[in-house]
Design brief:
mainly alpha; two-stranded antiparallel ribbon
């Protein structure tokens, strides 16, 4: 993909601020949603603190990757099951922080191992025929969020409305038109234009809905504004977020943790670190395709894993939520063709600063889900398509390749999960392997069963020079990879 701004480019102050704001808008809805879900499970989580934690975690990631990987880290949905179980089992705020530390430690341990053995195993274990469809199902797996937000505007099935779908489509079509037919300036900010147009349209409909008393037109929820400005105080404008570590200190003794509880937290959270490894590699392979650079080699898998693990721990310390590389951020990079790490850093700093500004968080929380759903059609679609692009050189006429791709797509899109044990409180599984990870496992096994293809028949076989992460200046070792 031809980028307008590369990883190390500096677009200038004005453009950087605009690009950063666009990144913030793209990741903010999902980042703020995770703490809201956990709050419903009994622990009071502050979305502003999660926003601060995402920004701080992203800065840690950028530092660990030597400013060579342009992606934002936001609140991870993969951890919701473990976080819900921790809340329901009365482990409190320290329980959330300690649990994420266990998951982050898995990343850090794998990072250290990779530092010494190199990352060559990634290309051997995850050739294009495996990683391509995995990236595709990551995008397609997120697609129900986009469509459900459009249909139900963040509510349940009783709130289905064609009007909210129209609002989502207006947002999406505006992004499409801006990105393809807009001026040179507008092509750089399609998400700001699209979400802004969708928001204004829903505000107009909401005004008509209140004037005519038509509930179906009341798409904007003004509760965040009434909560902030119902009684005007200093906190209505500036407020210290309720950081999770402060709440943990405040509630010391309320949620006692003994050795058994710590062990259970390890069993709840540590396996997620292993499961997330697959998505971590897939996200960086995908991002590497977009920026036309192998991020597994430079800055290296050991650095990206270290950044992701430490970024998650920092995010949980401040906001209670583990962080992960965000598909929305990758989609934003792909559509805007701006891979400048300076833009990502500015977005992270912006999230940290704006977490203290109550009006800004209130405005973001009032953007209707149907509008964000329309924007997500573009973001999640780009992720899925970039996975398909990885398959361009794979011969799908060869049944050995066809079976691998087919197994991953069907298992991933079909929602296959591997559940183990039973949670005595919630009634759900004690530990669950997500559909993306399950599809990857099935694909890897299928790839082993069909066996290695002869070199002359393998599609996309090239000679590359591979440098172990621990020996960047050593002589290259030539290996065959996909």
């Amino acid at each position: 993909m031809k980028l307008i701004y590369g990883i190390s480019d500096n677009p200038g102050l004005r453009k950087t601020l605009i690009f950063a704001f666009q990144q913030m808008i793209s990741i903010m809805a999902a980042t703020l949603l995770v703490p809201m879900i956990i709050t419903a499970e009994g622990l009071t989580m502050d979305p502003s603190a999660a926003l601060f934690g995402a920004g701080a975690g992203t800065l840690v990631y950028i530092f660990c990757t030597k400013r060579k990987s342009p992606v934002f880290l936001g609140s991870s949905f993969t951890f919701l099951g473990a976080m819900t179980a921790a809340a329901q089992q009365n482990y409190g705020y320290w329980g959330l922080i300690i649990g994420v530390v266990f998951a982050g430690a898995v990343y850090i341990i794998i990072s250290v191992i990779t530092k010494f053995i190199g990352s060559g195993w990634v290309n051997k274990l995850l050739p294009a025929v495996v990683i391509g469809p995995v990236v595709t199902i990551i995008g397609l797996g997120l697609s129900p969020t986009a469509t459900q937000w459009m249909m139900y505007n963040g509510g349940d099935e009783t709130t289905y409305g064609l009007i909210s779908i129209v609002c989502g489509l207006i947002t999406f079509f505006t992004i499409v038109l801006t990105s393809t037919k807009g001026s040179k300036t507008f092509k750089l900010i399609p998400f700001i234009v699209g979400i802004g147009a969708g928001y204004v349209f829903t505000l107009i409909l909401t005004g008509i809905g209140y004037a005519a008393n038509v509930d179906a037109l009341k798409l904007v929820d003004f509760k965040p504004f009434t909560d902030a400005f119902g009684t005007i105080t200093f906190a209505s404008f500036l407020r210290l977020p309720d950081f999770t570590f402060l709440k943990a200190i405040e509630t010391n003794g309320t949620y006692p943790l003994d050795g058994a509880a710590i062990g259970n937290l390890a069993l709840l959270f540590a396996p997620i670190g292993v499961v997330e490894l697959a998505q971590h590699i897939a996200d960086h392979k995908n991002l590497g395709t977009i920026v036309e650079k192998d991020l597994i080699k430079d800055p290296g898998l050991s650095r990206t894993l270290m950044g992701d693990g430490l970024g998650s721990i920092v995010g949980a310390f401040f906001g209670g939520c583990a962080n992960t590389t965000y598909g929305e951020s990758i989609g934003c990079v792909a559509i805007t063709k701006n891979a400048s790490v300076i833009s990502i850093m500015t977005a992270a700093l912006g999230c940290i600063v704006l977490a203290f500004f109550t009006p800004f968080v209130a405005v973001i929380n009032t953007i209707p889900k149907c509008v964000m759903g329309g924007a997500c059609i573009a973001m999640y679609g780009f992720i899925a398509v970039s996975g398909l692009q990885m398959l361009k050189k794979v011969d799908l006429g060869d049944n050995r390749n066809l079976f691998v791709v087919a197994s991953i797509l069907v298992c991933g899109i079909g929602g296959l999960t591997f559940n183990f044990g039973k949670n005595g409180i919630s009634g759900g599984a004690a530990f669950s392997i997500t559909s993306v990870a399950a599809a990857l496992i099935v694909g890897l096994i299928t790839n082993l069963i069909v066996g290695k293809r002869p070199a002359e028949e393998e599609s996309g076989m090239v000679i590359v020079e591979e440098y172990p992460d621990s020996a960047e200046n050593s002589e290259p070792e030539k290996t065959e990879t996909k």
